[in-house]
Amino acid sequence: MARRQTESITEFMVEDVRCFEGEQRALLRPITLLVGENSTGKTSFLGCFRAVGELLRGPRYLFDSPRIDFNQEPFLMGSFREIVRSRRGRDGRINEFRLGVVANPPRRLGIAPYPIHFSFCERGSEPSIVSYRMQFTEHLHLEVKHESDSCTQVSTPSCTVALDTPFDLPPAFLFRLSHYAREKRRPGLGLEGVEAVSELLSELRRLGRAAATDASPDYLEFADALVPSVPDLTSIAPLRSKPKRTYDPVRESASPDGEHVPMLMMRLDRTEKGQWDSLHDHLVDFAEQSGLFSDIKVKRHGKQMSDPFQIQVKVRSGSHANIMDVGYGVSQSLPILVHLMDDSKRPQTFLLQQPEVHLHPRGQAELASLFIQSCKERRNRFLIETHSDHVVDRVRISVRRGDLKHEDVSVLYFEPDRNSVRIRNLSLDKQGNLLDAPTGYRDFFLRETDRLLGFRDD
Predict the structure, then answer these.
(1) Cα(335)–Cα(342) distance, rounded to whole angstroms?
(2) Cα–Cα distance between 360 and 456 in angstroms, integer?
(3) What stretches of 78-139 adopt beta strand conformation (E)?
(4) What does each C-alpha distance from 375 to 289, 347, 370 come to in angstroms?
(5) pLDDT in tens, 404-436
(6) Among 362, 349, 426, 350, which residue's Cα sits nearest to residue 394?
């Protein structure tokens, strides 16, 4: 069965993580902008999203024990106690946090979007997932709890039963249950458990359009389609690797700081000439629009792949110069540009932290236009943590001009509220005006910009 390539998550939820008190819900759209003051949880939000995204990208058919890593670069979130919200006083400390998504199943299933919540507790010093709940309708749910290494509790509206099978994550566990239901047998699994799973999946099928034409549903295919499939996740750190005067070829392993990008460019230049020419032309087109440079090339110091090389750029009408000798914005933007312009990549979800670093205002605005173009032409999606009003303004102007649909943009404002942070979900109208912006956001970002750009000033 082929995995779906389009993202099927419309909301993300965090509850009792660091500065987030109680459940905070965030609308996700093709372009989602995260804005707010420093230390208001934007990076923690991205780190949690990446963890859940990798969870949902886990094995769909191969069964494995759940491993949720909250400490992959660039999101090093620490131990469980450093992630869970701290609480003092008579209520004691919090011993669980939750993350969740709203899944949007394919239209062919005829099932409305539904929430999936994952609960985490402390195991050793690390966060470990202990249960999850898929609430398909008000009265129809599947809840899975970790009881022991060889026992899992499964609850449906009709019963709660202990299964002698290891705890696992969706999609793999739901696939396993649907397999039991289809085969109507499982050594050590009582008839009650099989019938509960079969009844749940059959009821879901009846809710959908497929029931009218398919009297013998394929439970395995149906279960697979229920669980959202997240595109490849690409995280890019706020501080990218420093440029070098000369590069010695090393492993081309992708890293959030972009250290691998010069090696990638060198390899394409030497072994994939057509792909390099395409990437080169894309880079130059953007660089000329943004005023960064007018040409870029790889200068070789030998004929072998292992020989050193340089990255050189041409600024305006001058000659090519080493990347070390031009503006720092070139080297800091290059990892983002190369990732976005790589024609060999499938649609991705980009988690970007301050992509505007070291770029002048024109470059920041053009970078936002590149995100919009990438979203429209390559079906990439973006969660962008930014402090740049030029990035936000270019998105709003694109909506106003009709280059971008207003329903494809979500602005998440992280608003301090005493000792916690609230996530405010803001949208744009067809004219690019920000709807229902709270006072804090207008003071933080909006009022002077609106006056300059001629937007409505309420």
Answers:
(1) 11
(2) 26
(3) 97-103, 114-123, 126-137
(4) 18, 9, 8
(5) 999 999 999 999 988 899 999 999 999 999 998
(6) 362
